[in-house]
## 1
Amino acid sequence: MGKVVGIDLGTTNSVVAVMEGGKPSVIANAEGFRTTPSVVAYTKTGDRLVGQIAKRQAVINPENTFYSVKRFIGRKSSEVSEELKQVSYIVKTDNNGNIKLECSALSKDFSAEEMSAEVLRKLAGDAGTYLGETISQAVITVPAYFNDSQRQATKDAGRIAGLEVLRIINEPTAASLAYGLDKKNNETILVFDLGGGTFDVSVLEVGDGVFEVLSTSGDTHLGGDDFDDKIVQWLLSDFKKATNVDLQKDRQALQRLTEASEKAKVELSSLTESEINLPFITATDAGPQHLEQKISRAKFEELCSSLIDRARIPVENALKDAKLDSSKIDEVVLVGGSTRIPAIKSLVKKILGKDPNQTVNPDEVVAIGAAVQAGVLAGEVK
């Protein structure tokens, strides 16, 4: 059999990894990045864009840019009334109560599975190019709280993308596999997963290589994007005070602000100050206006204090549901790029009283675990 890849199909970003020479490694996409935004877009001329290039034009082409599709996969319209309000594209319901995503550029409707399949197809295609063989089998991860319908829909998305999905595994289980925690005896693990769009906490028990999910908790609307948005809103109100210009309605400006805010957030995880510099952000009668702003880590933490507080409750709930207190947790695993934020790290340490495990890149840990599982199924790993 050929190579089996492991895929972390995320709400905002996705990653593909494979076993090479007995070690799991992440495969960069055609653009050279190790993570691929889970975004699909259609241009006015009907071209399909997937990944980075789709994300870069999201604000300018909101009706035909499909993001966060994972929130709709395997769900009926009646279950996702809140989510429907939060996306910029049009979501419709067919006669069976199923969700359809309307693409005005092509004047046709897609299911959530078909949209997710485009992301999977790109990941598998780029992996195939790198490995020099066609990829036809994969292990795909899903959140621990996904129900049967959501798991089946994820499998269907794989099938539409031309992949035989050998197994669907839980994201916290995959993260634990990446750390080799399946080799431990009777340990209790807490997985703290703060992704781009969602926040999940899971408590797992491992013994004899078998994982049992004891509890899961989370906040389906808390993630890195919210941290970016806090910076965007601050920049908008600041700019309005200074120039009396409201950039809220200017899509081009908003796209640039969003990208600059994400970059500043990332910088503030390693630096104490970041500079946001956007020349020619808009023009008034007085001429072109530039946005120049410094943001310190302290200011960022102050802007995001409400978000940081929201991360506390699910951890406490997960412990309560597992009937454990924090001293009983043997390992803390961090997943998701947003766990690099220093304030989040110190929050985890404060609640659980121990340093989290961070030797594997948090963006890639789930895909690496999926690749380990894929290697087991392909007979490459004992």
## 2
Amino acid sequence: MARNNFDAIKKKALRLHKKAGGKFAIMSKVPLRGPEDLKLVYTPGVGAVSSFVASHKGSEWEYTMKGNSVLVVSDGSAVLGLGNIGPYGALPVMEGKCLLFKKFANIDAVPLVLATQDTEAIIATVKAVSPAFGGINLEDISAPRCFEIEARLKRELDIPVMHDDQHGTAIIVLAGLLNALKVVKKKLKNSKIIISGAGAAGTAIAKILCLAGAKNIVVLDSKGVIWRGRPNLNPAKRELARITNPKNMKGGLADAMRGADVFIGVSGPNIVTEGMVRSMERNAIVFALANPIPEIMPDAAKRGGAKIIATGRSDFPNQLNNSQVFPGVFRGALDHRVRAITDTMKLKAARAIAALVPRPTATNIVPDMFDKRLVRTVAAVIR
């Protein structure tokens, strides 16, 4: 039934996008009714605005689009769970992200997909176009390049830069986990947490969970558990080995999940079996967040004995998706003119989201996208 439903969604989505010609359009903020308006919005009146902005540093935030605009950038190298499908494959996702920015946070976002996957070229391009924008949202850029690109741009620009696949995902996962643990009456510091996926999202999730107090995290990539001393780890994975896996265990996913309290999947489809879930501790928490097909479907996870199940999709209960986070983060960043989105802000955002559901249940651990409190609650702590 789930498969048939997903097939129907795909067909409807294709029809919608073809009919509309995409999801993104540009609209004017001011009227252009005739010559009187024209001489104000363009020549000769615009010359006065240009001269003023050029000679008054900081005025661009009030007199141009900069104060309410975000650039959404992707090279198409890690799109959803679809992999490296290039800039054209990335464009529908970036358009959708811009739609969500506008709908939920009233931010004017512009999609930019790049025909290069060269780190230096991406950094140079974003820096070159950045003056028009109040923030940079990096999206669907593969690890480990995404770490260097974000770090460099954060150092070299004076506006907030956030790789949303990392930090938006990490924030909503922590929010969901805080409430899920409340439901099953377990503590974060005492829970064994398995993270499948050591890319952008998995790395950021591990780091924010450590900051929040988790003590027993094991991260896996496609080759198995990441452990100290494992050959051929890149620098990002060596850092993961340093801060996780306190017992330095080895093995595969089935080994890691045995006796675990929490599974967090940000990897690929259908890699978890009912038997793996059954091997977890009682009242197991399963966050199968791969999109569009999760690591295990919710009905299978339930048959395996999971108490709380979340996915990244909106057609199942307990959606955990970065789309619940990034509108509020950038709304706050623009409103409060922050230059960087810090770890402290991320932790506060996660806890603020969790607090919006004071009495969580197995099927309600975080607010959904259409909860009107969500954006303003997150925005309030980004300062």
## 3
Amino acid sequence: MLFRKLEKKVMQLEEEIAERKALEEQREAIIRDLEQKNAELERFTYTVSHDLKSPLITIQGFAGLLREDAQKRDMDRLQEDISRITDAAGKMQDLLTDLFNLSRIGRIGSPYEDISLSTIAREAVHFLSAPLAEKRIAVEISPDLPVVHVDHTRIREVYTNLIENSIKFMQEQESPKVRIGMRESVDGPVFFVQDNGMGIDSKYLSKIFGLFEKMDGRSAGTGIGLAIVKRIIEVHGGRVWAESEGPGKGTTICFTLLQEKCGATGKE
């Protein structure tokens, strides 16, 4: 009788220890997550203040020149000053718009729906038909992309940003091409947007999804596009990464979605 009571007490103690250990592990996981978010917030604050300061300095500088050139009645310089101020204000507006969109991902969105990725990819290609035609870029969309359960608008934004990136960094190719497809892996389907453009040095592959990261400072855009892509895919339970054999050898941006979001092949 005494042995049974002792055995029961030991079992209770073991359960309490296991519960406390689980709670401790949960607490440590929360602390690590908070530390990571704080570090990201610090980087975000620094980067935003730096990148928003740049157009403000430009506006301030050319506003001073605008006053001087107006007094001199130098109309050519006056028009140049106005143009530079307008460009800087436009850049700031683009930055603020992209930051606003980034902040809304995961908080505000459309209801999830079942839709073929082929349909979403075609919508993105149609939206970018003008710049694609201008650069004579051929687009190939794989017919075996599956039906997925996603935020239609957000995933279209993913494809739009990735195709825009391919257009931007295509360079002068004889036969420019963008391929939108899927490949199987041990962990499930991997979706990709592949181009034969300028490619990426291996040391930058993990950096391009950072906020305001741009491979070419002279290129158009705010440097937030791939950060938006990363955030959307993470909200959908997936991950995103870049592949390239190096400069001049094209780039493939890959992403996954939660298995439960990937359904049957979406042939239409």
